[in-house]
């Protein structure tokens, strides 16, 4: 038996050596090599090998095309969600706005917010304490623009150098990598003065959208919510008028949009302007307070609206008399009254900033070349 095994291995080796034998005539005459009597597999093997190679190439090409299509879809989606030159609206034209995790627990009488509102921003300065301290809220409306109250920034001496925007967290003590801190590159106050309590802040660089950082939708076609519509307001402001300690954890409270006439006492007995609105909880008298200014008042888009189920920025926390009053209700800037100004301003300023950056890059390149 052992002899047979040895013989088999020897014969196999000799056959292999025979097939690998190539003479000078084979090398110099390929046509003869294919029909060479000493290599009976030459023609068949060559044909089989060439066809296998073609099939393999086709398979690889198909796989590459599929991979390219998948990558194109992924990067296309990322590009849509990260675009700097689009301001999201509830029209659904911008897929990234108005999404948030499922609502958590239910700012005078408010409770801690257990889940982040992705568009909530803390504006911070270090004028008085020497360390970054919250002073107003703001809302993310695109990867490079924030919306806040005009009165929050009118008295800041050097806004673009002295404040930062902090986003991506519920806690002001959060030092995790998920928190994004961005400098302010430019401020734009509404030209109508104090009666239009809105302002835009252009960020020095784009924020990275994630589960905890994202834009809120803007109202469509100046559409405003009707009275009795439920909404939420969020902020890190003080809890009561007598307690001046701002909160570490973001708080949220559910309010109801009120008739304009309900706000007249807060507005010194005068009717509210079209650019104002009020909201309250007539049962608990929950309210916003100092430090909540500039923050968002949001509602869910209804089933008949262009993007049902998305969160829409209905108001910006503006002013009130005291906090949690039974008579004087909280007043908010009505965002729907400013959507055209917001779209026009952000488009113009974004284009100008892009051109400035490009010009600076060209100048720098020219100097390096010399």
UniProtKB/TrEMBL annotation:
The keyword Signal applies. GO terms for molecular function: serine-type endopeptidase activity. SMART domains: Tryp_SPc (SM00020). GO terms for biological process: proteolysis. InterPro entries: Peptidase_S1_PA, Peptidase_S1_PA_chymotrypsin, Peptidase_S1A, Trypsin_dom, TRYPSIN_SER. Gene3D superfamilies: Trypsin-like serine proteases. The chain crosses the membrane at residues 53-78. This is Chymotrypsinogen A-like. Coiled coil: none annotated. Pfam families: Trypsin. The keyword Ribosomal protein does not apply. Keywords: Disulfide bond, Hydrolase, Membrane, Protease, Serine protease, Signal, Transmembrane, Transmembrane helix. Residues 107-347 form the Peptidase S1 domain.
């Amino acid at each position: 038996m052992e002899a047979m095994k040895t013989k088999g291995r020897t014969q196999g080796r000799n056959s292999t050596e025979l097939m690998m034998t190539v003479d000078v005539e084979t090398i110099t005459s390929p046509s003869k090599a294919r029909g060479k009597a000493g290599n009976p597999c030459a023609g068949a093997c060559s044909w089989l090998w060439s066809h296998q190679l073609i099939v393999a190439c086709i398979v690889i090409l198909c796989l590459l095309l599929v991979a390219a299509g998948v990558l194109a879809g992924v990067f296309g989606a990322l590009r849509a969600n990260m675009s700097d030159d689009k301001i999201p609206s509830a029209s659904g034209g911008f897929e990234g706005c108005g999404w948030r995790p499922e609502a958590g627990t239910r700012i005078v009488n408010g409770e801690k917010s257990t889940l982040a509102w992705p568009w909530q921003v803390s504006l911070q300065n270090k004028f008085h304490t020497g360390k970054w301290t919250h002073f107003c809220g703001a809302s993310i409306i695109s990867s490079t623009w924030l919306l806040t109250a005009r009165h929050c920034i009118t008295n800041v001496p050097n806004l673009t150098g002295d404040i930062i925007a902090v986003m991506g967290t519920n806690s002001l003590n959060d030092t995790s990598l998920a928190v994004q801190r961005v400098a302010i590159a430019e401020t734009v106050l509404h030209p109508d003065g104090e009666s239009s309590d809105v302002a835009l802040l252009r960020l020095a660089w784009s924020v990275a959208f994630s589960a905890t950082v994202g834009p809120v939708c803007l109202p469509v076609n100046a559409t405003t919510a009707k009275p009795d519509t439920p909404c939420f307001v969020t902020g890190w402001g003080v809890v009561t008028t007598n307690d001046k300690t701002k909160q570490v954890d973001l708080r949220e409270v559910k309010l109801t949009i009120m008739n304009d006439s309900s706000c007249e006492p807060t507005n010194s007995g005068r009717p509210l302007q079209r650019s104002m609105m009020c909201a309250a909880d007539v049962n608990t008298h929950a309210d916003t307070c100092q430090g909540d200014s500039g923050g968002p008042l949001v509602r869910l888009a209804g089933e008949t609206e262009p993007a049902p189920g998305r969160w829409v920025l209905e108001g910006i926390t503006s002013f009130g008399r005291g906090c949690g009053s039974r008579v004087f209700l909280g007043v908010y800037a009505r965002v729907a009254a400013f959507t055209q100004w917001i779209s026009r301003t952000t488009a113009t300023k974004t284009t100008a900033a892009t051109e400035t950056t490009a010009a600076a890059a060209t100048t720098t390149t020219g100097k390096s070349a010399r």
